[in-house]
Amino acid sequence: MTRTMMKSKLHRAQVTDANLDYEGSLTIDELLMKAADILPYEQVHVYNVSNGARFETYAIPGPAGKGDICLNGAAARMGAKGDLIIIVTYAQYSDSELAEYEPKVVLLGPGNKPKE
């Protein structure tokens, strides 16, 4: 049997831009993607703390170290610049893998910088 578990999370990221005319996706600072073990084009679930919206899209890397979190395409209708969001990935784990399972959680502060 496999179970779907949270693999990683960027907690309380602040949206830095929304680009309706882009093809789609969620731009995430490349360093934040690495910190949270999110790969380019990996499916992400987004939970908007500011307005309650919940949606799925995929991640694309943004410039490293700038703190960019940009809603692109249709996702731009799900939030606005300044909104706080939670970005989550999930994965399938076998019961034996769960013995050593631990999700990667990155808590973010001002400027989308990881908290120590």
From TrEMBL:
Q: What's any GO biological process attached to this entry? A: alanine biosynthetic process
The regions listed as transmembrane in this protein's record are: none
Residues recorded as binding substrate, renumbered to this chain, are T57, G73, A74, A75
Q: Which residues form the active site?
A: S25 (schiff-base intermediate with substrate), Y58 (proton donor)
Q: Please give the Gene Ontology molecular function terms for this protein.
A: aspartate 1-decarboxylase activity
Q: How is it modified after translation?
A: Is synthesized initially as an inactive proenzyme, which is activated by self-cleavage at a specific serine bond to produce a beta-subunit with a hydroxyl group at its C-terminus and an alpha-subunit with a pyruvoyl group at its N-terminus.
Per the record, residues carrying Pyruvic acid (Ser) are S25
Instruction: Determine if Iron-sulfur is one of this entry's keywords.
Output: no
State the source organism's domain of life.
Answer: Bacteria
The record's function comment reads: Catalyzes the pyruvoyl-dependent decarboxylation of aspartate to produce beta-alanine.
Name of the protein this chain belongs to: Aspartate 1-decarboxylase
